[in-house]
Structure formats: structure tokens, C-alpha cells
Specification:
This protein is an alpha/beta fold and 261 residues long. It is built from seven helices and eleven strands. 33% of the residues lie in helices and 19% in strands. The longest helix has 24 residues, at 195-218. The protein is globular, with a radius of gyration of 19 Å.
Length: 261
């Protein structure tokens, strides 16, 4: 499936960063959000420090009031400070290390710019600082790396925690069940028009993988603890391209930690 970004709803444009790889899919989705009729915008996840990309974001965004970060991984946050300085605005993030200015960002916060309303939902798990952003007027949720446009995400152990991630998926599913969100605008890959179906798939997939890891652990007996994650990956993720096994091992470490907790 080809993905190149574009306009979505009445309030969003996705500018795709040119940093495609096996982990970022087609590249990082930088989201420009603006209320119809307004000249001021909010930019979510400026992405990598790539001049051509930042020029494209600046052209789409115009007068930027604020930069928001879904989390601190470099493919989302690297250019946040320099872009915000260029646009003469602040950066708000959960992790203080990524902020520019005095304002933080956390669960329950509401960001408003010229009638544009963005509600912040804490969704830790992929990382401890992961946030999602709900646009009630679009019934859309920007999920960063918590939900991807293709495939499933990594629980980046040890900062990422599986228990927290499952709680976050349940929280997002509750929003979808209540029809407060119907569409997912992810941090990588294409827009997902069935938010509820996507979240139910994510939860079912996690349960299946957890069952597989539990079964694999039972068959390894007294294997050295430091060798277990790779052995579990080789057994459970045999259907996954080996180039992704390093990322899979992070999730397996999170799964083992969860099962033994």
C-alpha cells in the first residue's frame, strides 16, 4: 500500500518525512492541524532534522502557534526545537527534555488555537512518554507510534512497558466504542478509517503474541536468562522478516517482564 500523506478532514494535513526504513515504514507523518478559516496552526511531530522536509512543513503550516510531540523518539522529535525556534513558537511534550518554553503536556490537557481543540490522552507503553491527541471535531486520534498505519508497534523495553501499553489500547478502544473517535491518524503509515476495528485487532494480536511467548517460555526449561529473549523471538517471530528481530526482541523482553511481574 502506497502512502504519501495529504489532506484529511477539514483540519489536517500530513507531510511525510523522507526517512523511510523498516522501522518508520514510509517515513514519519508530520501532522499540521488548523481550524478552518484560521491562519494559525499546530504542528505535531516535526520529525527528523531534514531541511527539505521542514521547509515543506513550514510552507503548509504558515503561522505556527505551537509544536506538540507524541513522544521523544528522534524520528518524531529531532527537529522539534530547531523548527519551533524557526517558527518562533514553543514545544510542548510530556518529557521535559523535549520542551521549548515553560508549558508541559500531559493526560487531560486541552490545547486550543483559534477554535481548534486538541485533547491530550496519556497512552504510555510504546514509550513511557507516549501521548495521543484527539480532535473531537474530526472524531480523529493522532496516535504517534501507539498505533501504526500498517502492522503493529514495538513496546520499546525497558522504557516501554507491556502492561501500560495494553491499558492504553483499552483506553483508546473505549473512545472508539463511544464513537468519540472513528479514525486513526498514525505517526507512520496510512490513515485508518476503522478505529474500533483497528484497536480490537491490536488487542487480539497482543493476546496472541503473549500466549505464544508464554508457551515458548515453557519449552525452554533452564535456558540462561540472558539468552531467552532471542530464543523466544526465533520461535515466535519465525514468520517475521529477520531484519525486524531486533525490534521484536524489545517487545519480547517487555512480554517476559509482564508475564513474570
Amino acid at each position: 500500500m502506497s502512502w504519501a500523506g495529504g489532506g484529511f478532514g477539514e483540519r489536517a494535513r500530513c507531510v511525510l518525512a523522507p526517512n523511510a526504513n523498516v522501522m518508520t515504514l514510509d517515513g514519519t507523518n508530520t501532522w499540521v492541524l488548523r481550524e478552518p478559516g484560521s491562519s494559525r496552526s499546530v504542528v505535531v511531530d516535526p520529525g527528523p532534522e531534514t531541511a527539505s522536509h521542514l521547509d515543506a512543513v513550514a510552507e503548509v503550516a504558515g503561522d505556527v502557534r505551537l509544536v506538540l510531540l507524541t513522544h521523544g523518539h528522534l524520528d518524531h522529535s529531532e527537529a522539534a526545537r530547531s523548527f519551533a525556534e524557526r517558527m518562533r513558537c514553543g514545544v510542548r511534550a510530556l518529557d521535559a527534555r523535549h520542551r521549548l518554553g515553560d508549558e508541559g503536556l500531559g493526560d487531560g490537557d486541552v490545547v486550543e488555537v483559534d477554535g481548534l481543540e486538541i485533547r491530550v490522552v496519556g497512552t504510555p507503553g510504546h514509550t513511557s512518554d507516549s501521548l495521543s491527541f484527539v480532535l473531537p471535531a474530526e472524531r480523529a486520534v493522532l496516535t504517534g507510534d501507539t498505533v501504526l498505519g500498517r502492522g503493529t508497534t514495538v513496546v520499546a523495553h525497558p522504557d516501554g512497558r507491556l502492561g501500560a501499553y495494553l491499558d492504553s489500547l483499552h483506553r483508546l478502544r473505549a473512545l472508539a466504542e463511544a464513537e468519540e473517535v472513528t479514525v486513526v491518524w498514525p505517526g507512520h503509515g496510512p490513515v485508518l478509517d476503522d478505529a474500533l476495528g483497528t484497536l480490537e485487532f491490536y488487542l487480539a494480536h497482543r493476546k496472541q503474541r503473549l500466549d505464544q511467548v508464554r508457551e515458548a517460555l515453557g519449552g525452554f526449561g533452564d535456558q540462561p536468562v540472558d539468552e531467552l529473549p532471542r530464543k523466544v523471538v526465533e520461535a515466535v517471530y519465525a514468520d517475521v522478516d529477520p531484519v525486524l528481530w531486533g525490534a521484536a526482541e524489545l517487545s519480547v523482553r517487555a512480554q517476559i517482564d509482564y508475564l513474570r511481574g
